[in-house]
Design goal:
The protein is α+β, with helices and mostly antiparallel strands and 170 residues long. The protein has three helices and seven strands, in the order βαββαβββαβ. The protein has one domain (9-137, 147-169): 2-Layer Sandwich (50s Ribosomal Protein L5, Chain: A), CATH 3.30.1440.10. It is globular and about 55 Å long.
């Protein structure tokens, strides 16, 4: 009877929900309220890094909102977001480091959420960070060290983890 090494078992480190509005003002406030209702957490505003004159965007201008979920809250929200996509994720959503990103076209697709005319209609981006225990040594400030190949998440491992959540890869 072989026991599985818990140090090489991938897990969901965090789930980030992002709504990019592209401008400051009322639309940004409505997007912030939507994320607050979805997650019961206070979203933070994301700011533009570059100037894009055709859209009237300059560095430092708030153009979106995001919220990060960890632990059980991230797992629960992931199940709801997968249900909004009919449990289908394209294989192209996985990058070479095993991270997953996909979009939800309209927030009303998420189970348990009803349309609110005051908010309007928004879609959102979902980014899932998958990690293995011990990988923190590559990201910490003090005593940073390299990690071996076994400690890195491969796309195949990320796909297997998403299948555990009931996702179908297309």
């Amino acid at each position: 009877m072989a026991t599985e090494n818990v140090m090489v078992k991938p897990y969901i480190e965090k789930l980030t929900l992002n709504i990019g509005v592209g401008e400051a003002g009322e639309a940004l406030d409505r997007a912030e309220e939507l994320l607050k209702r979805l997650t019961d957490r206070k979203p933070i505003r994301t700011k533009a890094r570059r100037r894009i004159p055709t859209f009237g965007i300059r560095p430092g201008l708030p153009i979106g909102v995001k919220v990060t979920l960890r632990g059980q809250a991230a797992k629960d929200m992931l199940k709801r977001l997968l249900a909004a996509r009919k449990n289908k994720i394209p294989k192209t959503s996985f990058d070479k480091t095993g991270q997953v990103s996909f979009g939800v076209k309209e927030y009303i697709d998420i189970p348990g959420i009803k349309y609110d005319p005051d908010l309007g209609m928004f879609g959102l981006d979902v980014s899932i960070t998958i990690s293995k225990p011990g990988f923190r040594v590559a990201r910490r400030k003090r005593g940073r060290a390299r990690v071996g190949k076994n400690q890195r998440v491969t796309p195949e491992e990320a796909m297997a983890l998403m299948r555990d959540f009931g996702a179908e890869l297309v």
